[in-house]
Write a structure and sequence with these properties.
Layout: H1 8-13, E1 14-16, E2 22-25, H2 38-45, E3 47-49, H3 52-61
Antiparallel strand pairs: 1-2, 2-3
Length: 65
């Protein structure tokens, strides 16, 4: 069985927590920020946990994380 390649784009976007969950950053924080409220922008700074439905696919893409 050959070694599996990690998808580099995904490796840059996801980190694994101590319990094995995948941590990600939130979207919609790069541009068109003037119309977004301060509260909304502040909440977009926080990291989020990847949804359970996507976790199986993400583990396949990131075999060595």
């Amino acid at each position: 069985m050959p070694k599996l390649k990690t998808k580099r784009a995904a490796a840059k976007r996801f980190k694994v927590t101590g319990t094995g969950k995948l941590k990600r950053s939130k979207a919609y924080k790069s541009h068109i920020l003037t119309k977004k409220t301060t509260k909304r922008k502040r909440n977009l700074r926080k990291s989020a946990i990847t949804d359970k439905t996507n976790e199986k696919n993400m583990k396949k893409i990131l075999p060595y994380l």
